[in-house]
Amino acid sequence: MSTVLLIARRELRAVFAGLYGWAILALVLMLDGLFFNAWTLGTQRPSSEVLSLFFYTNFGVTMAAAVFVTMRSFAAEREQRTLVLLLTSPAGDWQVVLGKYLGALGFVLCTVVAAAYIPVMVWLKGNLEWGQAAAGYLGIALAAAVCTAIGVFCSATAPNQLAAGVAAGFLVTLQVLFWLLSGISEPPLDGVFAAMDLYREHFEPFQDGAVHLKTLVYAPTVSFLFLLLSVRVLQARRWR
Amino acid sequence: MTVIVRTDRLRKSYGAVTALAGVGFECGAGEVVGVLGLNGAGKSTLLRILAGELLPSGGSVSIGGVELGDDSRAMRSRVGYLPEEPPLYREMRVRDYLGFVGALNGVARNELPDRIAVVAERVHVDGQLDRVVGELSMGYRKRVGIAQALLHEPDVVLLDEAVSSLDPAEIVGMRELVRSLGGRRTVFTSSHHLREVHETCDSILVLHEGELLAHGSQEELGVLAGRERVEVEVRGTAAEAAGRLPAGVEVVHSAELGDDVSVLTLDLAGAEREEVAAALVGAGVGIRRLEPVRSDLERVFLDLVRGDGAAQAGGPSQAGGESGP
Question: B 4-63 residues with CB below 8 A of A?
Fold first, then answer.
């Protein structure tokens, strides 16, 4: 576990060491603030609705942050020829992938924490429901876990950072748009697509304060699947 | 000799391209081994397999008795590897970078500061520890790359083109550094620069198109290339001595040293030294000295790669290696 945390710490520091991480953080805060300003400030919406709208916005922004930060993950190491350092160390491929994943997820969660000033404002100026806030943040964390795993997989697979970003963006968008496929599919596929939809099926209830057990299973399962695929990609590189 | 690295029928293919075609050799502890070959000969592939970055398509590799197939992580912990492009995180300070690599390779946290200090002094980057890696010259980057390969005190150090991109002063420093690594650990260094190999290595692996053409010391390779040379100092004139040599032996160079002493450099072309000595003594020529001439590596290398040398000597196994699937 110490190797995993070592890699995760380095990953997190690397993101903050350059302009890149700070730029993503600034973008997240700007978008969260702009949407909050446009949709809720000066309106007479109840606090629960304001918080729900904030989580709705934060969900999308967090997904984008996950895509942007993970596109570097393996692809940048390959471009800078530093991946060999990890691959020739005694660290196992699982440890490398998990370390990269936790480092990226740590950054994504930092952006979530940075935007927490908005719920604090709701708490100070309105009537914050702690249950809804906790459920909303749990939903954000679970969605971030899924999208970060998808991003890490794309970064492990793609030849460069741009391709990794495009692939991750496509897959994350697909996760959010499964409900469209569900609407035009016949049973039992419609049910399958609906169950895979990240937003409608697995996040929307959380933003309104409901915690669904199926999501508590779905998010770790999908994350594990993409991390497993990432490990397989690394192992395949040794055989190529 | 304690064998520390052993490969047997090692093969590696990239799709239809064969990078290594049944390479087998053994290297002892403390040897400095040069890996020579033209571009595409399979040098980097061999080092990448020894480092555990790639898995072979066939055959076996063991380092310190640990087989790659059994536990590649255990094998990797015994190896330090510097690829041609040093794997450096440019945004980190040298000290932090070495700390990270050391911890990654299992060096205990409380030992890291001392270990970093010792290794940094050894590779002469002790004055650069607080600098950002990205600001270092290529020579220092290579040195930091070697430092990261040494931190966990591996049995085997692999240096891929360690002198590429270095200026002449840095090359001299690197040569001394590589030489100093031998003795305590086995060092493999691949290079296009024959002089580097000539000056730093105890033995040489010659790869060509994925096959091991030869393995041995420079003198042994000279024999393999069918071009062993000896220098013989005799009483009398060089012309008299040359007239008494066995058939086929060529005089490459001769000189009169005065006081009725001459020296001849002979290309034995397959003849034994004893034959030469017997022929001269039998003809009444007094021999003051007869010793092998250290082979000109460039000539030996080209002879081997062109294919005439190994065939004459009956294959590389005579020099301690074996090849062929």
Answer: 14, 51-55
- Closest Cα in chain B to A87: B53
Q: How far apart are CA A109 and CA A102, in angstroms?
A: 10
Residues with Cβ within 8 Å of A16's Cβ and at least 6 positions away in sequence, in order, are A22, A107
Per-residue tens of pLDDT for chain B, all 325 residues? 788 999 999 999 998 899 999 999 999 999 999 998 888 889 999 999 999 999 999 999 999 888 887 668 888 999 999 999 999 999 999 999 999 999 999 999 999 999 999 999 988 888 999 999 999 998 899 899 999 999 999 999 999 988 877 778 878 888 888 888 888 899 999 987 777 787 888 899 989 889 998 888 877 776 666 667 788 999 989 988 988 888 888 888 888 888 889 999 888 766 778 888 899 999 999 999 998 776 667 777 777 776 644 433 333 333 333 333 2
Taking the C-alpha atoms of residue B222 and residue B231, their distance in angstroms, rounded to an integer, is: 14
Q: Which residue of B has its CA nearest to A3?
A: B104
Question: What whole-number distance in Å separates Cα of residue A227 and Cα of residue B251?
Answer: 69
- The H or E element containing residue B320 is none
What is the 8-class DSSP label of residue B144?
H
Whether A221 and A145 have beta carbons less than 8 Å apart is answered as no
The 3-state DSSP class for residue B10 equals strand
- What is d(CA B294, CA B219) in angstroms, rounded to the nearest whole number? 6
Q: Which of A90, A238, A239 sits opposite B105 (nearest CB)?
A: A90
ipTM reported for the complex, 2 dp? 0.89
**pTM score, whole prediction:** 0.83
